[in-house]
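[Backbone geometry]
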Amino acid sequence: MTKILSEFIIPFLSLIISLLALYFSSKKEKFSLTVDILTKENSEWLVDRASNDDPDVYFFEKYRFFVTLVITNNSSLPITITEFSINEKLVFNSFSLINNNYQVTVKNNWEEVFPGISGYGTGKTIGISIKEGSLLLPPITIKPYESAVGTIGFHYDTSIIGNNTLHIKTSRGIKHIPLNIWKKYISKEKNDYIPIDISELL
């Protein structure tokens, strides 16, 4: 009985324990990200363009979209985020340039009081102020079981209102999450800002 125990049962139990240890170890090392969207309302903005002296670097594209995320690494290994994209077309990566402030005048001060008669009213604006260090600008390395919090932004010329997909490209895989945008804010600001003719730069 002792011989059977030492030659068969104990090695078998050791094998089972080793396999279980390997299973739980690989499970901990498996690529796993949790993404939480903190932005209360996903909306795209056609922003104010009020400056000839300091225009947005992407002035020739109408829309901006910003979203704040919490990204948690549920793995026992570190992970590096290299790129964000929407529908694999709009990209936010290490080459993206974002201004500190964006504003949309949803209601301007100069409004029509009576037909043909205008006067000053109460204006309304919405905006975002991006503080230093608050962007999730790739590359971003997240340690095991830790999180990264920040804002990402996109610029584009054709509305993406509706159902979209956010792709998060990492060193260990790609995370896909649904991203629905159902609201649009269009600037009411009227100014003499004239975008540069891109053909002149080519």
